[in-house]
């Protein structure tokens, strides 16, 4: 899971909430338990003082005996005198739900659980009952609380489990609600790559489902418009191709004259425009599949010159490293052809093509481009390709082909040599 994703952050948040809740419950339980222990011991001490008053009469309470939240020391209790009236002592203790333990202190100490202790008293839990042990220099007593302990730990465990279930349920509910958003993101990613055959419709009634359905409606409209455009372009190219072909045949049958040359130029011009339309239709319809194979860069440059109906005399070729690249031969040749064609048309003198290591460089002398090369990658841009020679699609087609190959066209202007330098960086497979 991506650390920057919303799902990861939500998961991390809920884990932190569960851990924090457990810490709070644990700390609260410990604090509550300590308070309960203090209250229990204070009650035992109060009960003993009241028992003393009941048996021996009211006595002046020593100044240090004060009943606050913390249990007082048992000093001042006449335990020795109380034990002399043992039967009465037992009877009065019953009024406070206490009794003298029949078990020995050693049994409780060895087998019971020590809950709390001070220097002169200890509180134990044994077999579901509490035992309060008081030790004085010459006498000790072990009292048993006759009320059975009600365990509160189980309630804490139940509360913790319920909170965990609540958090996990809410987490799963939130994830379920966000899953369509994740699917929508994947569909948008596919759509950005030109895939119109996706379905983002949702049966839900929340806002995410509404967005998914609206996006799906938009895709349908775009798909309909794209299909209509492609159908229109194909039909118009088909309808134009027949009369152009007939016109070229008829013009060739005419006698040599200025009119014949002008007519042939017009039909050649129409054929050239039709081919440009055909190329743009292929690129924009996203129906093109790459046929990748390994080719020498020299062969690609040579074939691009063949398409241009020119030869090596028209350029200056420098091969430093005979690189081999994995490309679609026809498409990549077309890209190189367009760059070389522009270099011949709009440069001064012969353009220079350099094949070196993992780079194809094409240079031509001339003035610098007015704008960054990215501006000339747009279709129908005639700043670099004028209307007399094309539709302004040359660099647009180059950019599209390079993108299909995950490559880029770089440009810089050499001020000293007055050269426009176009460069394609590619990954070299091997050398031959």
Provide a descriptive summary of the structure in words.
The protein has helices spanning 6-56, 79-84, 86-95, 105-111, 153-192, 207-253, 258-284, 297-307, 329-346, 394-404, and strands spanning 98-100, 113-117, 121-126, 129-135, 140-145, 292-296, 316-319, 323-328, 348-356, 359-365, 409-414, 419-425, 430-431. With 432 residues, the protein is an alpha+beta fold. The strands form three sheets. Strands 1-5-4-3-2 form a five-stranded antiparallel beta sheet, with helices on both faces. Strand 11 and strand 12 form a beta hairpin. Helix 5 packs parallel to helix 6 and helix 6 (207-253) packs antiparallel against helix 7 (258-284). The protein starts with 5 loop residues before the first helix and ends with a strand.
Helix content: 40-55%
Shape: rod-shaped
Number of helices: 10
Task: Report strand order across the widest sheet.
Answer: 1-5-4-3-2
Order of helices and strands: HHHEHEEEEHHHEHEEHEEHEEE
End-to-end C-alpha gap: 44 Å
Tell me briefly what this model is.
The protein is an alpha+beta fold and 432 residues long. The protein has helices at 6-56, 79-84, 86-95, 105-111, 153-192, 207-253, 258-284, 297-307, 329-346, 394-404; strands at 98-100, 113-117, 121-126, 129-135, 140-145, 292-296, 316-319, 323-328, 348-356, 359-365, 409-414, 419-425, 430-431.
Entry keywords:
432 residues; rod-shaped; 5-stranded antiparallel sheet; alpha+beta; Heat Shock Protein 90
